[in-house]
């Protein structure tokens, strides 16, 4: 390896080290990471750690409160709420991750193409993005799911579609800033084609911002997916989706508040965790931040 390669590797390792130092100093971000890791472990092992079958009904335990046998109580048909929340963790994360990946891949691609080629391509991208951004995220998701149909697949596509304009706007802004810099001009001068310039030279400078936005969008998508399920547009019963569980408990808020309280707390904690993690990651990846 030549001296230039060694210096480049040392610079990368130094950048990673200082990024970790900045992130490690943010205690709230570390709390968010811990909560997310716990949820990932729960999602992976929920079928094995759930104390009761999440779909088993026991009409003698209808609306029963908290006890040693049922840590979060039972719902209106005697199902164990704690077991259903554990199983719903996997469902919520799968929906949210898939939706964010749709928004990330489609939005990043469109944003890069529009900014890089400019002119009429960029004008079309900007016009379409402005139209989509005129709608609130949740309203846009409802419109999409009304067109394609409800269910788990519908929630994923609708939630992902609502994230596309956010990724387009962010990616386009960064590419517009980067495409006129010397390293891009030099790449074009040595004969690199457009796809190579975008993937090899511009995309690495967009990645950190994409990762931060994806992390923050996870929190938004969880709320959108839960809201759609609350309206009955998500996975069908008896699926233990947290938003659907909230909807099931709205008629029992006075007699059995645990049916809605615990799914609501589960949504709040996971959304808070992704917001804390995203804020900490944004600060750590910002080169202007000082130790």
Task: Summarize the helices and strands and which ones pair or pack.
Blueprint (H helix, E strand, L loop, with lengths): L2 H22 L2 H23 L31 H37 L1 H15 L3 H12 L3 H27 L3 H8 L4 H37 L11 H8 L8 H28 L6
Helix pairs in contact: 1-10, 2-3, 2-10, 3-4, 3-6, 3-8, 4-6, 5-6, 6-8, 7-8, 8-9, 8-10, 9-10
Short description:
With 291 residues, the protein is mostly helical. The protein is built from 10 helices and no strands.
What's the shape? elongated
Total count of helical runs of at least 4 residues: 10
Q: Encode the helix/strand succession as letters.
A: HHHHHHHHHH
CATH class: Mainly Alpha
**What is the distance, rounded to the nearest whole angstrom, between the alpha carbons of the first and last residues?**
32 Å
Describe the model.
It is a single chain. With 291 residues, this protein is mainly α. It has one domain: MetI-like fold. Helices cover 75% and strands 0% of the residues. The two termini are 32 Å apart.
List keywords for this structure.
mainly alpha; 291 residues; 75% helix; MetI-like fold
């Amino acid at each position: 390896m030549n001296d230039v390669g060694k210096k480049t590797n040392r610079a990368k390792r130094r950048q990673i080290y200082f990024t970790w130092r900045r992130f490690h100093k943010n205690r709230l971000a570390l709390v968010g990471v811990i909560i997310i890791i716990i949820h990932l472990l729960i999602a992976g092992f929920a079928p094995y750690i759930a104390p009761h079958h999440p779909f088993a009904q026991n009409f003698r335990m209808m609306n029963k409160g908290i006890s040693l046998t049922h840590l979060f109580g039972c719902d209106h048909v005697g199902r164990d709420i704690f077991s259903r929340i554990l199983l719903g963790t996997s469902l919520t994360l799968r929906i949210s991750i898939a939706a964010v990946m749709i928004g990330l891949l489609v939005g990043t691609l469109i944003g890069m193409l529009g900014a890089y080629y400019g002119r009429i391509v960029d004008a079309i991208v900007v016009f379409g993005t402005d139209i989509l951004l005129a709608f609130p995220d949740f309203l846009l998701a409802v419109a999409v799911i009304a067109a394609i149909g409800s269910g788990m697949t519908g929630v994923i596509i609708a939630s992902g579609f609502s994230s596309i304009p956010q990724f387009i706007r962010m990616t386009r802004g960064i590419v517009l800033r980067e495409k006129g810099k010397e390293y891009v001009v030099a790449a074009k001068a040595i004969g690199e084609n457009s796809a190579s310039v975008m993937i090899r030279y511009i995309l690495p400078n967009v990645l950190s911002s994409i990762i931060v936005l994806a992390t923050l969008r996870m929190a938004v998508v969880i709320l959108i997916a839960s809201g759609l399920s609350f309206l009955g547009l998500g996975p069908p019963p008896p699926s233990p989706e947290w938003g659907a569980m909230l909807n099931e408990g709205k008629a029992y808020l006075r007699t059995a508040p645990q049916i809605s309280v615990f799914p609501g707390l589960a949504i709040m904690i996971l959304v808070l965790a992704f917001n804390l993690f995203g804020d900490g990651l944004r600060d750590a990846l910002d080169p202007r931040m000082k130790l």
